[in-house]
Amino acid sequence: MTSEKPDETQAAKFPHLRDTVRTIANTAPTVDYISVLESEPHAAAPGLTIKYVPDKLILTSQSFDDYTAAFRSVAFDSLEDFAITVLSDINNEVVPRWCQIVVWRHREGSANRCVVVEDRQPNWDNPALLSRIAPV
Fold it and tell me: How far apart are the C-alpha atoms of 77 and 36, rounded to whole Å?
């Protein structure tokens, strides 16, 4: 993982997406655990998986549904552009200890594509927990 942070100009292109991200307090902030939210591809929209280790906040399931509905109407330049936008939104609104964004598209007659981006808070590490995540 690089130490570079997601480009904030990505989020500035689609501010209505970030507006749909709502959080609630994490009731177990001293415990490291992985939360996973997944949306299957829909029409032109790619599939999205968000895996994160919450800190003080968690993303609500309804918020995730609203977020995925909102991005279905957005034309991203690339899967990479989309993945970085999601990472930036989650990092800024949820502020997880660790986050992995997986974006994928399967099209008949063409190559399957998958983009994975990750970030973590400085000085946070839990190798035992992260080793449980299946490689992409």
Answer: 26
Q: 35-39 and 47-53 as β-strands: parallel, antiparallel, unpaired?
A: antiparallel
Return the closest-CA partner of residue 57 out of 37, 38, 29, 35. Answer: 29
- If one counts the domains in the chain, the total is 1
Burial state string for 9-32 with b = 16 or more CB within 10 A and e = fewer than 16: ebbeebeebbebbebeebeeeeeb
- Looking at the DSSP bridge assignments, the partners of residue 117 are 101
Half-sphere exposure of 47 (CA within 13 A, CB side): 14
pTM of the model: 0.85
Interval 10-36: pLDDT, tens? 445 556 678 889 999 999 999 999 999
- Could you list the residue range(s) of the whole structural domain that residue 74 is in? 8-130
For the record, the structure tokens of 52 come out as 């994160």
